[in-house]
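Need residues for this backbone.
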């Protein structure tokens, strides 16, 4: 099994304010390894953000700090669903509800279904589709032993992904 990241999909809720993004990843790594990457303070910095505060329980506090040089890139919230090795869901300001659902796939693989719900316009929807896709590429690399060196991160890949997602809507 090789890692695959399905094209992110989206829909806008009634009234046009709530965005719903969905990704499905097929990863050649066991659930416990993927869980460690998406639901522990040690795993998150390798592909997403530093977990300055992380209380692994329903209702626990979460503060994530993006490491790619963005100004004002610290966002806080709470764990809104928690089922170890199955579901980790964080609802944080700016990014809304971020849900990681893990399922075993074959003997040693994992299917990761990701959902992100937030209030925002179409431009933010495109930003987030590109951002999550970019981060999921970084997740694949981190799971393969190559965590992101944030000091060298550049937005070029994000820009290309955003343009690609914008083309789908045209």
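Answer:
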């Amino acid at each position: 099994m090789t890692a695959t990241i399905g094209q992110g999909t989206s829909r806008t809720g009634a009234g046009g304010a709530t965005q719903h993004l969905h990704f499905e990843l097929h990863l050649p790594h066991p659930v416990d390894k993927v869980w460690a990457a998406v639901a522990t303070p040690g795993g998150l910095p390798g592909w997403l953000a530093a977990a300055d505060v992380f209380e692994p329980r329903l209702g626990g506090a979460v503060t994530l700090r993006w490491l790619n040089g963005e100004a004002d890139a610290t966002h806080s919230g709470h764990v809104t669903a928690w089922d170890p090795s199955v579901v980790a869901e964080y609802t944080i300001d700016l990014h809304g509800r971020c849900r990681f659902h893990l399922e075993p796939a074959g003997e040693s693989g994992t299917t990761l279904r990701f959902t992100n719900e937030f209030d925002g316009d179409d431009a933010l929807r495109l930003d987030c589709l590109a951002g999550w896709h970019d981060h999921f590429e970084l997740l694949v690399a981190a799971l393969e032993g190559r965590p992101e060196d944030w000091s060298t991160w550049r937005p070029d890949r994000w820009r290309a992904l955003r343009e690609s997602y914008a083309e789908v809507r045209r």
